[in-house]
Amino acid sequence: MEPATTRQLTIVSLFDGIGNSYIASQRANLNTKNYFSCEIEKNAIKVVDHHYSNDQKFKKIGNVRNVRGTDFPDDGTDILVIYSFPCLDLSAIKKNRQGLSGPESSLFFESLRILKELKEMDRLSGSSRKIYHLGENVSSMRNEDRRRIISNLRGIFPDTYSIDIDSQLVSASHRRRAYFTNIQGVQQPEQLGIKLSDIIENGYVDREKSRVILTSNITMYKSSLPRHYNFGIGTVIFKDKEFSERPVEEKLALFPMMLEQSGYKGKPNKNNSPLDFPNSVFRLPTVSEYCKLMTLPPTYLDIDGISTTSKVSLIGLSITVDVVKHIMSYLPEELKVNENEYQKS
Question: Would you say 332 and 188 are in contact if contact means Cβ atoms under 8 Å apart?
């Protein structure tokens, strides 16, 4: 039985990270001919090598600065360019942020260059393929940067627009992001009602959704709980249900005494499990739990040779798989295969 589709899709994922967009494309049942992964971070490459080194569709293409639109000749497939460019200079978290002029976030213009080159190549050849694009970055960027992004993209694709989506609609974690695309008609995802308590392996939480996953988290030592509550940083999982339900002021007052009684000095103990509570009060999410917060498979980062800290950083730099899947679902039906046929395509 042939897949019920008439067109294939080439996906080019700039700043691909650990391949979240590839998982999203599979969940969206896209009829993908080739997936080009552009990434230079060594640990991220270890992850995609672990999962996709034997996948003939998955092709690594290195540094975005060396990628050209002409690298992707018109082979009869439509093309989707995904660009989750660095947010460091755009995020409200950074003091004195430089926006799109900053050294990290200015990589947006590499994405823009590649899109221009693709469009120009099609103009010269008279190609009938459709070029789609999907960008992602923090919603907390300044309005002037958002307008600049949209204006530049509309210079190539006049039907470009932006939509803000909070990942908490499809996951147990807040992650409000701006998405820039010419995939038409994208609406807000349905609220699935997934709670933080649904995805943790033990302990108790005092909020329905986790905070945004950052590339670094609080510790479990002296300044940890005050930073968590006073600055809104990190997600904590409490050992005791009664303690988790106490008012914040009581938690902060009791924590120093309980920490001292535990004997915990802030140094990791190799004998402790990630599910232990060495300070007697709380623990941080495990790598598996962080994966579930980003709607990744829970064992996706069960890979030797990468530290827990690096794994959490990789997750914090990722895009939410099921939000991307949701946006991809608005691509034309002719670019998809029947769910039962996907593994054969």
Answer: no
- CA dist 103 and 134 (Å) reads 22
Alpha-carbon distance 183 to 188, whole Å? 14
DSSP 221-276: STTHHHHHHHS-----EES-HHHHTS-HHHHHHHHHHHHHHHT--S---TTS-TT-
Residues of the chain with CATH 3.40.50.150: 9-193+319-344
Structure tokens at 177: 């992001």
CB 120 within 8 A of CB 126: no
- CB-based burial label for 285 (10 Å; 0-12, 13-18, 19+): buried
Counting residues of the chain whose pLDDT is more than 70, the rounded percentage is: 96
Dist CA 295 CA 344 (whole Å): 24
Q: Which residues contact 343 (CB under 8 A, 6 or more apart)?
A: none
pTM over 0.85: yes
Q: What angle do CA 143, 149, 144 make, to 5 degrees?
A: 20
What is the average pLDDT across 241-258? 97
Which position has the higher pLDDT, 344 or 71? 71
What is the CATH architecture of 196-314?
A: Alpha-Beta Complex (3.90)
Query: What's the mean pLDDT in 134-158?
Result: 95
Q: Kindly list the distances between the CA atom of residue 175 and the CA atoms of 138, 197, 286, in Å, as whole numbers in the listed order.
A: 9, 17, 18
Strands of 31-117, DSSP E: 32-38, 58-60, 78-83
> What is the average per-residue pLDDT within 317-340?
93
CA 95 to chain centre: 23
CA 205 to CA 304: how far, in whole Å?
29
CATH topology of domain 9-193+319-344: Rossmann fold (3.40.50)
Residue predicted with more confidence, 84 or 94: 84
Which part of the chain is CATH 3.90.120?
196-314
Picking from 73, 63, 76, the residue whose alpha carbon sits closest to that of residue 335 is 76
pLDDT in tens, 191-247: 999 999 999 999 999 999 999 987 667 889 999 999 999 988 899 999 999 999 999
